[in-house]
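[retry 2/3] Mitochondrial phosphate carrier protein-like protein: previous attempt timed out, resubmitting with same input.
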Amino acid sequence: MPFLFPSQHTLHNAFHHSVPFGRHEAPAPLPTPKRTPLQARNELFPTWSVVDDAKEKANALSAEATKEFEKASAKAQAKAGAIELYSAKYYAACTFGGLLACGLTHTAVTPLDLVKCRRQVDSKMYTGNFQAWGKIGRAEGFRGIYTGWGPTFFGYSAQGAFKYGGYEFFKKTYADIAGPENAAKYKTWLYLTASASAEFIADIALCPFEAVKVRMQTTIPPFAKGTFDGISTITAKEGYAGLYKGLYPLWGRQIPYTMMKFASFETIVEMIYDRLPGQKSDYGKGAQTAVSFTGGYLAGILCAIVSHPADVMVSKLNANRAPGEAFGAAMGRIYKEIGFMGLWNGLPVRIVMIGTLTGLQWMIYDYFKIFMGLPTTGGAPPKVEKA
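[retry 2/3] Mitochondrial phosphate carrier protein-like protein: success.
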């Protein structure tokens, strides 16, 4: 209740001015204290208050989300039962995590992939990404920007399942064959051979959907209404061989890509933990998934550069290879048309796309492993001190 207390002006006049009884004078203004260089401006306090409130709300939401995640995770683990490392149940969990990681992320970046494929087939079609999306949106509507999302989702879900589940399986199998000492000594070779073996199988599952996707994205209007309509159209004209005519260049693109993806990821993550204080086990779930995203993004940049020429050739072969044309003859004809520099069309777009894609894939994959009570991928094992 402010009226119970005298004002500053009243106190000032009472103690510092001698005013005769009965006279009324306006109180002299108080001097404004000078603000020191380290003193904050008064008008900023409301802003700080708003920021603090926002931080508190964000922390409360984060704590609530963490609580819900823990509940859902506990339910899932109780339903699945104990998952022993390197058991059939473990590989099944890794397979499903890979399905989620690849299927969701590749589908999300369909607009980037659409522009990349069209520019690889015809470098003069668009001058840039935003110009391309604007042109596609005006001509084909918003759905046109997501042309090919169906075969992308089905194909890369299948590929991710075989790739991540297969990698975990082959990594353990080859490590057992090599023995503990050789597995530790030649761990990079272990990552390379395990990832190549997994990708070889994964591409067989991906290839039919990749053929449909590329044709849908590079024909205007798209040659088919959807995934299974596209498969029926291709097989009706070219037989089932038409779905696999891009398999060799797909292997040429995906196997080096995956070898780089897994080996560089494992190496980068181990380097990150080596430079952080403590051990990997000292860090929480959020920190570990952040490391997974960082390692995945950096690995993705390397992957994009290594595999880009083969990626261009896959797009060209699926779009331009004539029925019955030999694989080698088609590659020679396409290379004469585009030259060496043509093999690098769309590389900047692909670096952004693959870097983001790979980072998110590893983050989703490892987050799912945490959800199921499993350790995240990568990082040196805890050091055992010798007696």
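[retry 2/3] Mitochondrial phosphate carrier protein-like protein: The chain has a mean pLDDT of 83.
[retry 2/3] clearing retry counter.
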